[in-house]
Amino acid sequence: MRSSEEVVREAYRLAEGDVLDGDGFRALFAEDGTFNDVPNAQTFRGEQIPQALAGLASVFPDIHRELLDVHVLGDVVAVELRIQGTHLGAFPTPIGDIRPTGNRIDVPAADLWYLRAGKVVKFNCYNAANVLLAQIGAAPDFRAAIEAAR
């Protein structure tokens, strides 16, 4: 059986834009495993997991994760990383798509991977979504938020 670190490093390899193997990524998870995009309050299970990877890669086809630090504490793997890529696809929002800008992203993130018997049972991704949005030119609209609160 592979070590927890080996499983996690394989997950990152399979999620790279030039590899993008959603089914292989999903196979690293336990049957009831979850992928939690914490900043966006989204949880993916089962066949939603490869769809989540494909969705992000459709926006940033050259997506890459630069692993800065990897720490293993038994069956828990903590990773500090940077999510990088080029905004070449439509970025979906609740009110419509943000058209591709060609802008590069370099987003700080931290991931916590929880494993059991060599399978991922929970993957919590904490990415700086505000940094990503600013880098693709979608800065927050503070004026509208202030006016809406009045």
UniProtKB/TrEMBL annotation:
Pfam families: SnoaL_2
Organism superkingdom: Bacteria
GO molecular function, one term: isomerase activity
Positions of the SnoaL-like domain: 14-122
UniProt keyword GTP-binding, yes or no: no
Annotated InterPro entries: NTF2-like_dom_sf, SnoaL-like
Keyword Isomerase tagged: yes
Alphabetized UniProt keyword annotations: Isomerase
The protein's name in its UniProt record: Ketosteroid isomerase-like protein
